[in-house]
Write a structure and sequence with these properties.
Layout: H1 2-12, H2 31-42, H3 46-49, E1 52-63, E2 69-82, E3 85-93, E4 96-97, H4 100-118, H5 120-140, E5 141-151, E6 154-163, H6 172-178, E7 180-187, E8 192-200, E9 204-206, E10 212-214, E11 219-226, E12 232-245, E13 252-264
Antiparallel strand pairs: 1-2, 1-13, 2-3, 3-4, 5-6, 6-7, 7-8, 8-11, 9-10, 10-12, 11-12, 12-13
Length: 279
């Protein structure tokens, strides 16, 4: 289930090369081509993300079946990208700063992940895995009932998201997508997905619910925004419902993740003098 959520966020974070803004009454683009544009452009995003470091705040609330709060967990992370792979460094948990021991542990883990994905082959392998998850989602979904609106001088496309009736799910992510319906808005000029709002319309149980389960009414909302240099980043992910994947999700929960306070970094390097070999 977590993989499915990550895949949807990745799909919502994809961006494309700018296109000419069409007239309001121009024919709508082919929905499947729109999804393929987002998929193809995800592979081009890594170099742009590399320049950003953002603050991520997440709150997860576990509840009972009646919605009464049982436990609340919060975390603030610092997120940056290495060869397109996000690296998170925990700054605080449940409103408290980390202890010196926890800080050292975080430093060690972040350094380990940074070195791991500094290897381009390793990063490419992980990126391929994530892109495959996106492809799985795209196959299982269809965009229907398209309409175009002009907002703040930009052409925005609105679609309903429905399952692809001619598709047979092959894995957990695709089975997840098959029971989700909702709406999506897309910036037509860039191909960027602005807002995604989906909800499960049927119960999903895998291996009798032992491997995974998703109850009707599970809700997920994701929103993107454009940075001043036209790089699009996720700034909100939230959801609630009854879902479980093995032992990783509490059966009843709601969560909210926000990203902001992003800093743009640039770096240039030049060689001065003769390079010398060292042991």
């Amino acid at each position: 289930m977590r993989s499915a959520l990550i895949a949807i966020m990745l799909l919502a974070g994809a961006w494309c090369q700018a296109q000419t803004v069409p007239a309001l009454n121009a024919p709508l683009p082919d929905p499947s081509q729109l999804l393929q544009r987002a998929l193809a452009s995800e592979k081009k995003l890594a170099a742009e993300q590399e320049r950003y470091e953002c603050r991520v705040s997440e709150t997860t609330t576990e509840t009972d079946k009646n919605g009464n709060v049982k436990k609340v967990k919060s975390e603030v992370d610092e997120q940056f990208f290495v060869n397109g792979i996000p690296i998170d460094r925990v700054l605080s948990k449940d409103g408290r700063d980390l202890s010196p021991g926890e800080v050292k542990k975080q430093d060690d883990e972040v350094m380990k992940e940074t070195l791991k994905y500094s290897n381009q082959a390793t990063a490419a392998k992980e990126a391929d895995r994530q892109n495959q998850q996106i492809e799985d989602l795209v196959e299982a979904m269809m965009l229907a009932n398209g309409r175009r609106k002009m907002e703040n001088g930009r052409s925005i496309l609105y679609y309903d998201i429905v399952p692809n009736p001619r598709f047979h799910a092959r894995n957990l992510i695709q089975r997840f997508a098959r029971v989700m319906q909702g709406t999506i808005s897309i910036d037509e000029q860039t191909g960027e997905m602005i807002d995604l709002n989906i909800k499960s319309v049927a119960y999903l149980k895998i291996a009798g619910g032992l491997l995974a389960s998703l109850h009707k009414g599970f809700w997920l909302h994701i929103h993107n925004h454009a940075e001043p240099d036209d790089v699009w980043l996720n700034d909100l992910a939230e959801g609630s419902g009854n879902a479980r994947a093995a032992l990783f999700f509490h059966p009843y929960f709601r969560f909210k993740q926000t990203m902001g306070d992003c800093h743009l970094y640039t770096a240039k390097a030049m060689q001065v003098g003769q390079a010398k070999a060292v042991k």
